[in-house]
Amino acid sequence: MMTATQSLERDSDSPEAGPFIVTNRLIFSIALPMTLGFLTTPLLGLVDTAVVGRLGRAELLAGLAVGAVIFDLIFTTFNFLRAATTGLVAQALGRGDRREQQAVFWRSLVIALVTGAAIVLISPFLLSAGLWLMGPGPDVAEVTRTYFQYRILSGPAALANYAILGFVLGRGEGTLGLMLQTLINGTNIVLSVLLGLVLGWGVAGVAIGTVAGEVIGALAGFAIVYGRFDSKDAPGWAMILAGDRLKKLFGLNRDIMIRSFALLAAFTLVTRIGTSFGPVTLAANAVLMTIFLVAGYYLDGLATAAEQLTGRSIGAAYRPAFDRVLRMTALWSLGLAALTTLALLAFGNAVVNMMTTAPDVRALAYEYMPWAAVTALTGALAFLMDGVFIGAGWSRDMRNMMLAAFIGYVAALAVLVPAFGNHGLWAALNLFLLMRGVFLLIRIPRRAAQTFMPVQ
Fold first, then answer.
1. CA-CA distances (angstroms) from residue 444 to 23, 80, 201, 394, 400?
2. Cα–chain-centroid distance for residue 273?
């Protein structure tokens, strides 16, 4: 809820402060660059999978898939650093509080570097736990170990990139976000092909390419962001480490981390259950999950626009902007999701052919392609609602609705997988995505009324 004190904190000299008009141009000034930027991430997954898939051995592709899931569990669980930073910076932007924008950046960056270093130190335990959780065979596990021992070195840089990108997106600077994402993933793609395929380093080359991309991106991003700070707005350490501000940041981080962990657990179950169907099915599911991520990151651009503009509207205490953001981004998300589903139904098999040369993997991927294609539609509302709730700071609701959807997902797995095998696995995943979006949508009217309650 906006208070009188928060309203008085607004800096009238800031051009971003106060009421603003939401237009398609404003939405796509954030969404379009970030759609392109986010698409480089699944494109990277496509390239990595294609590099290893070209080696013609299913256990190499399966080992890469297991390794990628382990790193999703490790790094993407900490995506709260990006999300919380974006929401808090956007709200400070709406208030015109430049000093707090910088303070949020420094808080997040310190947390990122400390956490990243800790991940590297406990990496042997993380690898053992990951292999125990995924349960791959000996040959697949050996490939995963090779991949892990190199890629884990990117920990501090990878998490620093979350903080940097969160700050950039919180300010609505989609073009700069695109540049940084392209630099990170572009470097990764080029080096993965060069080291993994051309020089024949295989899985190790793919992992080293990832480390190089993260480090180069973090150094460039920090230099750009820091170079644009105005020294007169620089916060002191007392402000950066203020107890109430840290409590708010950690509260957001906690809730978003729980939400992210539940989401990753849902995706991990796809791989874990797929493992029980054998290496060929596991490899086919890995290919299709990569295609699913293409649709996910594609829609994430609009979710990012909703996140920034929602946070800004709440910082400005301006309900009309909030309502318009929600309505316009929902229409665009659902429309583009429908087009994405149609495109995957028409051309998905051709994408599979580019990703693997193994005939048995291709055949199974063709069979399950319709399930991967429809995830764009079932997941559109879920992606958008995540953006709205993160930007608004309604992290507790997002956490609780995610847990409710996850319970429903586990129940669906228990019923559908024994009855329909891998088809049941994909059906349960689509139900999970749909539940997430609907559960969050139902919460919006009450939360918006509370947040925009008139100042007394």
1. 21, 21, 50, 10, 14
2. 23
Mean pLDDT by 10 residues, the chain (456 residues): 40 64 90 77 66 68 76 75 87 88 90 91 85 74 81 90 92 88 86 79 82 92 91 80 77 82 85 85 85 74 90 91 94 91 88 83 89 91 92 91 96 94 94 95 93 68
Contact 106, 89 (CB under 8 A): no
Q: What is the DSSP string of 82-102?
A: HHHHHHHHHHHHHHT-HHHHH
Distance CA 283, CA 223 (A): 40
Which two three-digit tokens encode residue 313? Answer: 């509207």
Amino acid 278 reads G
Report CA Rg, the chain: 22
Specify the residue for token string 């390794």.
67
Report how far residue 322's alpha carbon sits from residue 306's, in angstroms, rounded to the nearest whole number. 9
Contact in structure between 84 and 246 (CB atoms under 8 Å): no
pTM above 0.85, yes or no: no
- Give the C-alpha separation, 66 to 141, whole Å: 8
The amino acid at 415: V
Q: d(Cα 293, Cα 364) in Å, to the nearest integer?
A: 19
Residue whose entry in the numeric block shows the structure tokens 């019923």:
415
Neighbours of 255 (CB within 10 A): 24
The CB density around residue 127, as the number of other CB atoms within 10 Å, is: 19
Tokens for 4, please give them. 């009188």
**In the 3-class helix/strand/coil scheme, how is 10-34 assigned residue by residue?**
CCCCCCCCCCCCCCHHHHHHHHHHH
Decide if 139 contacts 58 (C-beta within 8 A).
no
| Per-residue burial over 157-174, b = 16 or more CB atoms within 10 Å of its CB, e = otherwise | bbbbbbbbbbbbbbbbbb
